[in-house]
Design brief:
By secondary structure, this protein is of the alpha+beta class. It has a single domain, classed as Glutamine Phosphoribosylpyrophosphate, subunit 1, domain 1 (4-Layer Sandwich). It has an 8-stranded mixed beta sheet. It has a 4-stranded antiparallel beta sheet with strand order 7-8-9-10. Helix 1 packs antiparallel against helix 2, helix 3 crosses helix 4 and helix 7 crosses helix 8. It is globular, with a radius of gyration of 19 Å. The two termini are about 25 Å apart. About 10% of the residues have low confidence. Bound molecules: aspartic acid. The site of aspartic acid (ASP) has 15 residues, from strand 8.
Length: about 325
């Protein structure tokens, strides 16, 4: 039994916030990424190849906050994070703060397969991608009008806070930097899969959060926080990264399954609703277990998501 699940980010995605035309575009993009991964699994590809391909498809789509559609940092750059992990070997690779590589998930896989390391960051990670011939892109490739507007909006709000803090603070106090609104303008893409041979894998990729501070790294490339895979489950998270890091969210699902014997669905519910939710950690995660069961859990208003199990129809959903 092979199976695959993908997500395109969780957050305040209310029915009223998407026009029917937008909704169709998101659904079509999710369907395309799901089909890419499903066809590979059906043809005998490994879970690792499948999750990489599905995430690449989402990274290439400007609708999602990863790769091409990555959000802007406070300074107006793009700093992207990605991670990939193979459940059967527990090998993992991740990149953080890359600015040039077209598909950060491919760079993450290079870290896993071509280096002795797990996580490379900033220009060194782009450099690895260049050394291995991955396509690099200029900033214009990652520019989307919608994301640019979102930054302007965040800056306007942030500047007000900045001005306020400067007006009231003593000279010695550092100016308060605007922070990204936790409920606003984030997103991430991810995939988890079980292949015909029983292997599990997870992949996650993101631009992080709009207006994030220079060099901020979220949960996505932190193995165990935003991405995890072992023999029991593969997990890819999306949401306010700082909360997911502090909760070690993805690994916590695996721990609950291992130490408390919870099912995947129960473990995901505990992490998303009992742990992250009450703490203010808005978001969700997708998971798959060794039997090919899938969980799509979120405590936000919506999560772009899709899944398909061998022989069954594809399921695509956005809202609760
Ligand atoms: N988890 C991502 C981050 O904090 C953002 C998201 O998934 O919405 O960088």
């Amino acid at each position: 039994m092979f199976a695959l699940a993908i997500h395109g980010g969780a957050g305040t995605i209310a029915r009223a916030s998407l026009t029917p035309a937008d909704e169709m575009r998101y659904r079509a993009a999710l369907e395309a990424a799901l089909a890419t991964g499903y066809d590979l699994l059906r043809d005998g590809a490994t879970a690792l190849d499948c999750v990489e391909a599905a995430v690449r498809s989402l990274e290439d789509c400007p609708l999602f906050n990863a790769g091409r559609g990555a959000v802007f940092t406070h300074e107006g750059h793009h700093e992207m994070d990605a991670a990939i992990m193979a459940g059967h070997t527990r090998l993992a690779g991740a990149v953080a703060g890359v600015r040039q590589v077209q598909n950060p998930i491919r760079a993450a896989r290079l870290v896993m397969e071509k280096t002795e390391h797990v996580l490379l960051a900033y220009p060194g990670a782009d450099e690895l991608a260049r050394e291995h011939g991955l396509p690099l892109q200029p900033p214009a490739y990652f520019f989307t009008e919608q994301r640019h507007q979102q930054l302007q909006e965040a800056l306007r709000e942030g500047r007000m806070r900045l001005d306020h803090s400067q007006a009231n603070s003593a000279e010695t106090a550092p100016p308060e930097l605007p922070v990204a609104d936790p409920n606003w303008k984030k997103g991430t893409v991810g995939a988890v899969a079980r292949d015909q041979f029983g292997n599990l894998a997870a992949a996650t990729s993101t631009g992080g959060m709009t207006n994030k501070r220079y060099a901020r790294i979220g949960d996505t490339p932190i193995i165990g926080a935003g991405t995890w895979a072992d023999a029991r489950c593969a997990i890819s998270c999306t949401g306010h990264g700082e909360y997911f890091i502090r909760a070690v969210a993805a690994y916590d699902v695996a721990c609950l399954m291992e130490y408390k014997n919870l099912s995947l669905e129960e473990a995901c519910r505990v992490v998303v609703h009992d742990k992250l939710g009450p703490d203010g950690g808005e978001g969700g995660l997708i998971g798959i277990d060794a039997a090919g069961n899938i969980s799509l859990s979120f405590n936000s208003e919506g999560m772009y998501r899709a899944c398909r199990t061998e022989g069954s129809a594809a399921v695509v959903a956005i809202y609760k």
